[in-house]
Amino acid sequence: MTIDEIFDSFNQLRVLIVGDVMLDAYVWGKVERISPEAPVPVVVAHRREYRLGGAGNVILNVHALGAEPIICSVIGPDTEGKNLLGELEKRGLRTDGILQSPDRITTIKERIIAGSQQVVRVDTETDKVITPEEQDQLIAKAKALLPDCHVVLFQDYDKGVLCPNVIKEITDFANIHGIPTVVDPKKRNFLAYQNVTLFKPNLKELKEGLKVEFDVKKEEELRAVVKKLRYELNAKGAFVTLSERGVYIDFLDRQYRIPAHEREIADVSGAGDTVISIAACAVALGLEPNIVAELSNLGGGLVCEHVGVVPIDKETLKAEAGKSLKT
């Protein structure tokens, strides 16, 4: 495939995203006095904005690439849940994979900003594992949606939507239907993702998940640890992001180390979400392992040039890929 063909093909994809979707809230205001109750500033709020967070940022990245994201998650029937659904609906994105449970709250991370300074962040959340009944309902939704999708993307933030039963049921169903599975893991379920197509930890997650220490600068040590990871998970591939050292992929029995591109780094927030979104779409298209890694690495670097969590710009990524990738 040429670069043009790859980027055109993204538009034909449907990506089932299973994981912890959240709501980010930003409250902008002005400090006018110190509280008489405690030595803290009083922020007079002028504006409030809601954005998709957690797996929601993956939704935005997949959508920005031209693919159709379908989110499968569990949220509460609360005001925050209503606002989260509203953020999806105003973008024309599907909400039929979302389960609203009366026993659960919607995770919201609220940032109070005075002028240009973030004063405090308030997180209202639960990380308890969803109930067996909620698991059954979520699995049923995923199985109903999955046959029309081209790839499953597990986005795990350890907030309880993903658990071993949900992971196994959906992965097994996807494998039966020949649909690839791609994972952005966290600590709690790290070794629960058995028989997946591509598993993408960062370096810290890799070391913690396997309980190993090694020198990432030594290629043979990195290779050995990633090989061990693939063996532990019986995964077709592992894709490790190494921050300023680039990425390493061991997929379909081929190994590549891709260096990072030199950039003016403004903010690394959300880069991992961009990387996994591009990787999932690339795997869905059956691209070669080196192209999966290079394209994802490019995208992760590009979003780091912007302040805050922003989805990838497809045209910028395409232009960069045209200059640096050989397909």
Automatic annotation (TrEMBL):
Listed GO MF terms: heptose 7-phosphate kinase activity; heptose-1-phosphate adenylyltransferase activity; phosphotransferase activity, alcohol group as acceptor
Keywords, in A-Z order: Kinase, Transferase
InterPro entries per UniProt: PfkB_dom (IPR011611), RfaE_dom_I (IPR011913), Ribokinase-like (IPR029056)
Annotated Carbohydrate kinase PfkB domain residues: 14-310
Domain of life of the organism encoding this protein: Bacteria
Keyword presence, Kinase: yes
GO cellular component, one term: cytosol
Keyword Kinase carried by entry: yes
Descriptive protein name: PfkB domain protein
Species in which this protein is naturally found: Runella slithyformis (strain ATCC 29530 / DSM 19594 / LMG 11500 / NCIMB 11436 / LSU 4)
